[in-house]
Amino acid sequence: MKKNMKAIVLAAGKGTRLQTENCDLPKVMRLANGKPLLHYVLESIGFIAPEDTVIVVGYQKQYVMDGFPGYVFAEQAQQLGTGHAVMCAAEALGDYDGPVLVCCGDMPLLKRSTYEAMAEAYDKEDCACVILTGTTDLSLPYGRVLRDKNGAYLRIVEEKDCTPAQLAITELNAGVYVFDAKTLFACLGELKNENAQGEYYLTDVPEIMMKKGCRVVACRQELGKQIIGVNTPAQLAQTEAILREETR
Asked: For the chain, which terminus, N or C, has the lower number of CB atoms within 10 Å?
């Protein structure tokens, strides 16, 4: 595994659907089994040093910054999408030229072994991007992964845009990536926000890379419950129950 890998952790969100509980904390600081969601993510990517980990903060940023001293922080002042969040980390990474893991601070169930499998795939493959994909028995509104007849990655189709045949695909996009940093930031500059939300989506970057002739690889894992992201009170309760079970 490459020892010089760095990380960008997306942790700027308010968690609007969690605010129904009258809690003003940033989403990643909501507690599950007594610890913030972000704690579990940082623990799982612990093979990357804190000084090499950029946490993108936004809403109530001071809670995150005070809770995790020793990490590098970048601010996303406006919530303009995941692609924009990664852009906000560019200055903190400086002229770094190597692999960078991009993950979500609200996915506390992903295991260290899963992140390490992505890092190993990046080491082995001649590619600019590794996308974490996986299967699960859960019904989740995630994008489907399309492959060609030889099994090579083609693209991701968001669930709302899927045909009935594509909805039957069981390989889902987990929203976690390892990128070549230089290629990533070059492609981020080409993102468009011509969508209903007016946001810049990180999911568009692999397609931009492929159009430039770069290779993109899907690292497929059996993710099961690991793929759960916390967006609602029900998902927070579900996650807490899983974490409690795992710590018994």
From this structure: C
Sign of CA dihedral 142, 204, 85, 161: negative
For residue 109, give every residue at least 6 positions away whose Cβ sits within 8 Å of its Cβ, in sequence order, or none.
40, 225, 226, 227, 228, 239, 242, 243
Sign, Cα dihedral of 162, 150, 135, 43: negative
Q: From the DSSP assignment, how many helices (H) and strands (E) are in the chain?
A: 9, 11
As a whole number of angstroms, the distance between CA 19 and CA 36 comes to 16
List b or e across 107-128, with b for residues whose CB sees 16 or more CB atoms inside 10 angstroms.
bbbbeeebbebbbebbeeeebb
d(CA 186, CA 83): 12
pLDDT tens by residue, 5-43: 999 999 999 877 776 556 788 999 999 999 999 999 999
Report the alpha-carbon distance of residue 13 to residue 81 in Å, rounded.
10
**SS3 assignment for 17-33:** HHHHHCCCCCHHHCEEC
32 and 40 Cβ atoms separated by less than 8 Å: yes
Question: Residue 122: enclosing H or E segment and its boundaries?
Answer: helix 112-124
Q: Exposure of 68 by Cβ count < 10 A (0-12 exposed, 13-18 middle, 19+ buried)?
A: buried
Extract the residue ranges of the chain whose pLDDT is less than 50. 1
pTM above 0.90, yes or no: yes
Give yes or no for a contact between 162 and 144, defined as CB atoms under 8 angstroms apart: yes
d(CA 178, CA 16) in angstroms, rounded, equals 28
